[in-house]
């Protein structure tokens, strides 16, 4: 895997048919009908049940210096911020860096334990990326998801490296990678099979 700094990268776990979550997402089942408990245990078991086998990929997930995510990934609250919500990850989220959340509704930045601060960006994907780049310096910016947000960045030609973690199950419906994205030219950088997942890394050429 490339060690160049200053890129826009994306890590996304998907089913074999390209879905990052199942249909029917809700606060009780954030990943919807995902083939398991609705909390991503089936899709993301490679990270939690087989962490040592996938240590290199997990470490790379956390190596970005700033993150961008969609509001759907941040939480289930829609419309104005009518109740406290600081993400799914508890008091100390795993990012340990600035996170820029796309939303239509303004909100003051939310600092958390461990170095994560959520910033809420109301003026689009370009503005969020510009702010993330400034925060990251010469480090990578990671578009963390979900699939709809990743698709927006891919369609705009803003992603340098795409890292897919393909899990051997099909979901049949839900938010799907590449929906609405024009044709892409990719160069395969790396691939590695593991027990629960196949890791694929692509450079996005155009």
What does this structure look like?
This protein has 206 residues and is an alpha/beta fold. 17% of the residues lie in helices and 25% in strands. The protein contains 5 helices and 9 strands. The chain has helices at residues 45-48, 55-61, 71-74, 125-136, 147-155, and strands at 8-15, 66-70, 98-102, 110-111, 117-121, 141-145, 161-167, 186-193, 198-204. Strand 8 and strand 9 form a beta hairpin. The protein is globular, with a radius of gyration of 16 Å. The model has no long low-confidence stretch (mean pLDDT 94). InterPro entries: DHFR-like_dom_sf (IPR024072), RibDG_C (IPR002734), Riboflavin_Biosynth_HTPR (IPR050765). Residues 8-189 form the Bacterial bifunctional deaminase-reductase C-terminal domain. This is Dihydrofolate reductase family protein. It comes from Streptomyces labedae.
């Amino acid at each position: 895997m490339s060690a160049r700094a200053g890129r826009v990268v994306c890590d996304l776990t998907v089913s074999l048919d390209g879905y990052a979550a199942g249909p029917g997402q809700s606060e009780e089942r954030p990943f919807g009908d995902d083939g398991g408990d609705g909390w991503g245990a089936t899709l993301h078991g490679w990270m939690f049940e087989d962490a040592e086998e996938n240590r290199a990929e997990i470490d790379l997930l956390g190596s970005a210096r700033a993150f961008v995510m969609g509001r759907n990934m941040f939480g289930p609250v829609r419309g104005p911020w009518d109740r406290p919500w600081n993400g799914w990850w508890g008091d100390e989220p795993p990012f340990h860096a600035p996170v820029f959340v796309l939303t239509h509704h303004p909100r003051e930045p939310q600092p958390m334990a461990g170095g994560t601060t959520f910033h809420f960006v109301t003026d689009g994907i370009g503005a969020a990326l510009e702010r993330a780049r400034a925060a990251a310096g010469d480090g990578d910016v990671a578009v963390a998801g979900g699939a709809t947000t990743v698709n927006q960045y891919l369609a705009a030609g803003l992603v340098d490296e795409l890292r897919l973690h393909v899990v051997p199950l099909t979901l049949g419906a839900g938010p799907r990678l590449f929906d609405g994205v024009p044709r892409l030219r990719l160069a395969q950088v790396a691939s590695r099979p593991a027990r629960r997942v196949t890791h694929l890394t692509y450079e996005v050429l155009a």
